[in-house]
Amino acid sequence: MTETSASPSDQKPVQPAAWHPPKRTLPILALVALLAVIVIACVLAAFDLAPFGVEGVSTDDAYLQGHVTIVAPEVPGYIEGVYVTDYAPVHKGQLLVQIDQSTYLARVAQAEADLGSRQAALINNRQNQASARAKLDQRQAALMTARAHLTHSSADHRRQAALVGDQSVSQKEYDAGLDSFHSDEASLRQAQADVRAAEADVKSADVQEDVLSADVRQAQAALDSARIDLNRTHIRAASDGVIGRTGGTHIGAYVGAGTALFSLVPNERWVVAEYKEAQTGNIRVGQAASFTVDGLNGQKFTGHVFRIAPATGSEFAVVKPDNATGNFVKIPQRIGIYIAIDPNQPNAERLAPGMSVESYVATPGTSTAAAPPATNPQARSVAKDGAS
Q1: Is the pLDDT higher at 34 or at 81?
Q2: What is the dihedral of CA 230, 235, 240, 241, to 10 degrees?
Q3: CA-to-CA distance for 236 and 98, rounded, in angstroms?
Q4: pLDDT in tens, 229-249
Q5: Domains of the chain: total
Q6: pTM for the model
């Protein structure tokens, strides 16, 4: 048997095994995917994109509004002091302007003196009333005495008249009794007249009481009016706010009642957004809203709808459009949506009436993207405005 052996060149070299990292691919991929989802969600939420964005309507036909109060005196006079400057913040009740008080102080003093005189006359009349009632009581007592005397003399006269025939009473005694009877009759009539006069005095005093009481009330009203006018020489701020331009309000200037001195802009602000009527179908009071302000580099503020105009803007116009004649062209009307501003927002104090804003009202379930396709050019223009 022949033995054969393989040469070293015929043998294949043994390759070393390749290195592989530990198999942790699945947890790493899951972590990366989670981070990517979080980043995408943050981006969508930051730009109000779906699914975080709320459907709604927007318009740039919107402006900030606020009450602008005209500060004017209620009484005429010379300006004695001006205690505010242009664009100065003020608080409710703060003294703004002082009118010269000298004339009004004199009127108050005169009214006080007149009231004192009327009150003294009323007190004197009440004393007269008491005196008249006492006199009436006295006259009534005298009347009762006169009646008693007349009753007694009348009885004596009747007895004497019965006895004079049989000579039991002399003619002289009879005549004296008759004279006494006639005298008592006259005294009774005089007492009755005195009572009537005393009663008239009491009634006159009572009537005078009503007249003088009315005079006192009138004098008191005149004094109250004079004091009110005196108090009105202090022109105070009706609310917290900011003063406008004081203009020609200077010390020594004469102003009449109702003369506009300057404006006071209260701190309360709101947004009036004029939405097209097709955009307002799902707007309700209480819905969330927001707006950006052109004058504050587009800063966003939040709020909510607190009022919806009861009619379109054209209905409040002095001259209303008449569509009864000529060719008719449908023009979308606009309805005012009032948006209250949420408190405690940065730069809210810089919001000024008249500033232009772009408003947005969240109306869940309604958006121009979900609106049915327009069927005519007019409807397409409405949808386009809603999308903007």
Answers
A1: 81
A2: 170
A3: 9
A4: 999 999 999 999 999 898 878
A5: 3
A6: 0.60
Q: What angle do CA 335, 315, 278 make, to 5 degrees?
A: 30
For residues 337 and 361, is the Cβ–Cβ distance under 8 A?
Answer: yes
Residue 306: give its domain's CATH number: 2.40.30.170
Is the pLDDT higher at 239 or at 188?
239
Bond into 27 cis (ω within 30): no
The pLDDT of residue 274 is 93
Check if the beta carbon of residue 247 is closer than 8 Å to that of residue 70. Answer: no
Q: Is 38 part of any domain?
A: no
Give the structural domain span for 206.
103-231
Rounded mean pLDDT, 291-295? 93
Question: Do 131 and 249 lie in a common domain?
Answer: no
Q: Which helix (H) or strand (E) holds 188?
A: helix 171-231
What is the predicted pLDDT for the residue at 142?
Answer: 79
Give the mean pLDDT of 286-315. 91
Tokens read off for 62: 């919107």
| 212 and 291 assigned to the same domain | no
- Cβ neighbours around 173 below 10 Å, total: 14
DSSP symbols for 126-143: HHHHHHHHHHHHHHHHHH
Distance CA 114, CA 354 (A): 53
Same domain, 249 and 279: no
Same domain for 214 and 246? no
User: Residues 177, 153: contact at Cβ < 8 Å?
Assistant: yes
Both 203 and 159 in one domain: the answer is yes
> How much is the pLDDT for 5?
46
Q: How many residues can be counted in the chain?
A: 388
